[in-house]
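User: Hi! I have a protein structure encoded as tokens and I'd like to know what sequence might fold into it. I'm fairly new to this, so please keep things simple.
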């Protein structure tokens, strides 16, 4: 867990993980992909969203090592 107040990067990562988790829940429960519904006309943007969600998972794994959060 974070020892201090989370930095902006970790707040953004948490928001993206939340959105990604909801999307996976919708895919698993109803076979309905919200990202494709909202951004399906822009396949490059859909891919960028998925990459950002994946990167946010890596950022969250490194949360305990962020110097900005330990202030």
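Assistant: Happy to help. Inverse folding works backwards from shape to sequence: for each of the 71 positions I chose a residue that suits the local structure. Here it is:
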């Amino acid at each position: 867990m974070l020892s201090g107040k989370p930095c902006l990067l970790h707040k953004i990562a948490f928001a993206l993980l939340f959105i990604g988790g909801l999307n996976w829940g919708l895919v698993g429960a109803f076979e309905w992909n919200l990202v494709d519904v909202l951004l399906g006309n822009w396949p490059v943007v859909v891919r960028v969203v998925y990459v950002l969600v994946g990167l946010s998972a890596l950022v969250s794994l490194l949360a305990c090592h962020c110097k900005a959060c330990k202030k």
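A useful reference point when you look it over: The helical segments are 8-30, 34-39, 43-61. Feel free to ask if any position seems puzzling.
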